[in-house]
Amino acid sequence: MQPSRRAAPIPAWTLRGRRLEWGERAYVMGIINATPDSFSGDGLVDVSAAVARAMDFVAAGADFIDIGGESTRPGHRPVPEEEEARRVLPVVKAVRAAVGVPISIDTFKPSVALAALDAGADAINCVWGAVPGIVGVAARSNAPLVIMHNRTAADYSGDVVREVIDSLERSIRDAMDGGVAADRIIVDPGIGFGKTPAQNIAILNRLAEFAERLPHPLLVGTSRKSFLGFITGLPVTDRLCPTAATVALAVASGADIVRVHDVREMVPVVRVAEAISGRSSKLDDLSTKVDLYKRPS
Fold first, then answer.
1. Identified catalytic residue from 96, 259, 271, 279
2. C-alpha of 216 from chain center
3. Could you list the residue range(s) of the whole structural domain that residue 193 is in?
4. Which residue of 1, 39, 58, 230 has the fewest CB atoms within a 10 Å radius of its CB?
5. Nearest Cα residue to 70 out of 118, 112, 23, 119
6. The pTM is what?
7. What digits encode the pLDDT tens for the residues 197-225?
């Protein structure tokens, strides 16, 4: 198994003093939901609990912390800007004071994004892609922007993978036209958003095509999602192993960032997937060099 071919080499980034070598390894983003109605039951409304979780994530090897204040699960109740800000801003500020890794704010509301950046966030993770207001905030602040694919209905007319890639390409152009630098864009195919279980599976099966066509870091979020329940019949509380399977396959297919709830368990999964897919530099540190791809004679 080999990593996917890149559309083009992606230059390294420096974020919060940390060098991100895209393509050399996969990075782990830990999820903190500052909301009482998270689909996975892990929502936190207490700032100190959110800080403790962030510190645990970093100790376990998280490279990013993603903080959100509005559930985006199917059937969720929209949250007014004021309420979302009330939930997330104290968490962002407190987590920023406690950990040194980059923080992303998970929102599609420009005012919340701007306030979170002012409070210490470094990047914006937008579930509705290149929303004009969000693009403007990212451009003015030079903050990295995660552009996720989403739509209100899973009514694709043809090949879902091609349609999602084409849509992301349009969103990338919109973001760049709005002033976001090409080297500040991350793309996310939006697993679980506006897609049936079969469509989610098709995207994961052909995830390498996203890395091959889109010259930007690729973020994949499968953690605990409902399509895993569709496959296994397991409730959200029992989807750790199914999530691990998708994380390993995503890393092997070229994902640069995996967004997960269970950082301590997923970091070793990522490291093993990197090694087997040839993305780990740790193999070079072995005292006895072994050609892992050579068949025994």
1. 259
2. 13
3. 26-281
4. 1
5. 112
6. 0.91
7. 999 999 999 999 999 999 999 999 999 99
